[in-house]
């Protein structure tokens, strides 16, 4: 009786044909932790080579997902095809290369150091190939910004030297400067600035796989751990923390010739003629009026590829893809809903949100017919649920809230959409939001296992299959409920002003 009441109250949100209620629960129970984990595990396998957008490994992963959609009778989104292709170059990092230094201390003594992957450095995803050696110069943010009379290279000669660069940019003095500075702060911009100043190598202080940096054949680079940078300063009796503080507080360049001799070797092969695809599968709506409206759910399918070693990208973002796949499979068994549901597997997120930006330029479904885009990124580690933007769109959120309350029973939180974020967008959802789409997101809270972000240890072992099952079941129910709603109020509720007390 209690179950009946719960089901009845949930379906008040989305009155459906009575025979489908039983069916909804029947297919709800077909989503298992094993199924969802299996998709994520498969996508993390070496055969997909870390799903680097542009490379054959990515294409293979896209074909793997499309083959499943086809098997489930989910229709191709793009004129009979699941794919929309775009040209994209990529770099094959064939081995880990090496990174070493000859430190010169204040007294002129030399100390030879050899650094290890992954503890001390990551090879550059788009580095030129070969071995370079040169004197090391710390160039702060590595930015030359004539409009603000700011130049980290001022008075320095870095010709044929190796520059060491921080992430980020000087603090903007007012809100309108954010976008200007963000445009200078990209790693590709910093790299070409180093090249323009004659440097032959770059050490990025931030140990992360970063496939979005543009390839230049005449520059070799790698990413180093902050502890290595600290050591470079320590050897000269300097303190990196203090130097960073000065850089930040004074908002002025604070570059230093460190004199150490650094050697980087990279073993790469550049492929200018690669390509990647965005992938869309749809369940067309059936209501004569409402079928034009579309609910989109998506996840980026690409990863960081291989940096001499596989970056499996299990959590980031095989997890999001797998959660959506299982939900799509289960939804494909139900009577088609009133509105169209689209499953969007996005390419080249790791290369700078390229797939999402291409979509925004030429959307398959017009903005005014797109009810919302719901983004899943790294949704496979945690014990609670988070729905980003629910307070801003309560008439969308209520479907997610109700299905969790009645069937999933996980702690659930939400927030207001943050429309005032600064600088460049960091997720596919934010990229679409910046182009006027209603972009919401699904996350997990209360991490259960250790996080290995952009790390070779982002393996299936770091996933929590139980939360993946629940996320998949949750979006299955909520999407179906939302797609069948008689009406959806899309007026945006804006975050209330904080009270002044
Ligand atoms: Zn991601």
Determine the CATH topology of the largest domain.
Aminopeptidase
DSSP strand tally: 21
The CATH superfamily of the largest domain bears the name Zn peptidases
What molecules are bound to this protein?
zinc ion
CATH hierarchy, class of the largest domain? Alpha Beta
Which architecture of the largest domain per CATH?
A: 3-Layer(aba) Sandwich
Tell me the quaternary state.
single chain
pLDDT < 50 runs, ≥5 residues? 1-5
Please give the domain count.
2
Quote the beta fraction. 15-25%
Radius of gyration: 25 Å
On the 0-100 scale, what is the average pLDDT? Answer: 93
State the end-to-end CA separation: 49 Å
Q: What is the helix tally? A: 13
The helix content is 25-40%
Q: What does the main sheet amount to?
A: 9 strands, mixed
| Shape assignment | elongated
Helix and strand composition category: alpha/beta
